[in-house]
Each structure stands twice: as structure tokens, then as C-alpha cells.
Amino acid sequence: MSNKPKEISIHRLELPEIMFIGIPVNVSFKHGDFSKIGQLKQTFMQRRSEIPNIADVDHYYAPWYDCEVMFTYFYCMQVSSLEQIPEGMTGFAVPARTYLRAQYDGAYPCNPDPYAELQKYREIHNLRHDKSAIVIEKYALANESLEGRLVVEVYGPIES
Fold first, then answer.
1. What's the burial of 151, exposed, middle or buried (CB within 10 Å: 0-12/13-18/19+)?
2. Residue 65: CA count within 13 A, CB half-sphere
3. Coil, helix or strand for 44?
4. Among 36, 55, 32, residue whose Cα is nearest residue 44
5. Which of 135, 129, 115, 136 is CA-nearest to residue 158?
6. Burial of 11 (0-12, 13-18, 19+ CB in 10 A)
7. In this predicted model, what pLDDT tens digit does every residue of 62-120 receive, in sequence order?
8. Which of 56, 64, 67, 58 is nearest to 18 (CA)?
9. Burial 79-102 (b: 16+ CB within 10 A, else e)
10. Closest of 107, 102, 103 to residue 2, by C-alpha
């Protein structure tokens, strides 16, 4: 068996508007408690059955964005409507846009890192990350019990 890192496939695609309902967490980069992200995941997994109008029952999503001081991360389900949002959760729509999708299935921590691979791809193809847009991570619920392995699709927005 080879120890060579698995190649990450990257594709450019257009995603339509996507609606999510989930729970956010904010962490400051300086002196932030990043363990809050893992704690939030446990809470989300316990409460996700409260989310109505789920459009994709097989996956959960982790959209995120950052600025120079703070990181905001969500655990969400994709939904078909934002009419009913459970107490303590947030509902929002991500506008249609162009993304690069990096698919990773391998050891955790990631080798290679899908975010580094997206950056390389953008550089090679003269594309720019759209810093005003949200990044989306997509996880299959069926893979939650995998020990030491991560299966994720990372959608990195690019400028049009």
C-alpha cells in the first residue's frame, strides 16, 4: 500500500441559491476558543431533527466566512424553505454563484490539504477567491463514524 498522498479532484461549477438552517459559532482568531466548534457540532447533531423542510437528508453542511479578527462557522442542513426556523438556529440563503469544488477522501489531518489545493488551482488558472462570499463544506452523515478519516467536499467561491 502506498503512502503517497491522494490527489484531490477540483472542478469548477455553478451552484444555484442554497438555503440552510443551522447553528452558528463565532471564534476570534486571537485568543479564540476553537474547541467551541467541536462542541457546536455535538449540539447540532442532537438538534438537527428539529429542522423542518430538509432538502438533503444525507448530508450536513458547514458554511463559514472570516474577516481579519473573527471566524464564523455554521453546522446546517440544506432546506427547501426558511419559513420555520427553530429557536436558537439561523436560516439563510446563499446566492447562486461560481465555485471550485475540491473533494477529499483520506486520512485526517488532510494530506493534501483541500484548501491548499484550491489555492494552487486558482493560481494556475488565474482565478481569484471571492472573499466576500461564503465557503461551504459538505459532509455525508453516513461517514460520521469513520475514525481517523475525513470525507469532505469543499466549495470555494471564485470571482466571476
1. middle
2. 9
3. helix
4. 36
5. 129
6. exposed
7. 999 988 888 898 999 999 999 999 999 999 999 999 999 999 988 878 889 999 999 99
8. 56
9. beeeeebbeebebbebeebebbbb
10. 107
All 3 cell numbers of residue 105? 477522501
25: Cβ–Cβ under 8 A, 6 or more apart, which residues? 36, 37, 40, 72, 73, 74
Percent of the chain with pLDDT over 90: 68
How far is the C-alpha of 35 from the C-alpha of 9, rounded, in Å? 30
- pTM for the full model? 0.90
Interval 28-48: pLDDT, tens: 887 767 777 888 999 999 999
Write the CB contacts of 41 (distance below 8 Å, at least 6 apart in sequence). Answer: 75
